[in-house]
Design goal:
heterodimer; A: mainly beta; 4-stranded antiparallel beta sheet; globular; B: 6-stranded mixed beta sheet
Amino acid sequence: GAGVSQSPRYKVAKRGQDVALRCDPISGHVSLFWYQQALGQGPEFLTYFQNEAQLDKSGLPSDRFFAERPEGSVSTLKIQRTQQEDSAVYLCASSSGGVTYEQYFGPGTRLTVT
Amino acid sequence: QKEVEQNSGPLSVPEGAIASLNCTYSDRGSQSFFWYRQYSGKSPELIMSIYSNGDKEDGRFTAQLNKASQYVSLLIRDSQPSDSATYLCAVIGGGSQGNLIFGKGTKLSVKP
């Protein structure tokens, strides 16, 4: 079946621009997570949704980062007034929400801020 | 601060050998443990999950968990050049909503 999809795959933004990154989870998966991965590092948690509810946003690095999942399916991560330190790969993962907690990742969006 | 530690490597093994990857975690309340494989330029791919002490085998992969020692390992038998990748250990901490805490990964190189 279809896995997690993300778009765009690559995004170049000038410093100060706003960007929106989209995630389409595996059909039926209630849990959706966003992670940020810097080069040579493991992914770091940003935020978590269960259906449409954002239950944890403790990993968002600043108030320039905002995420939503209005209908409990597709999610958008928005970054306002991008800075060079926002350059990273943004990964979305989904999980069925069952007891196994296994998360499956999309291909990621590589954001480069110039 | 909940932490997951891995040796960054690179770990180099000859084709056909056993590769042993290790991980320790700081949160004693952690209950769920995962190994992901990440090829260069790609996203993490789940290869093993383990939830209870002992060994779990899946094909050429064996995950081992020792909660008393806060230690997780991954053994890859009959290593192949296609196994060359970075292996990420991930943990769901106690009391969390289910988010993964990752180590920095161990780079494995399997030489033909």
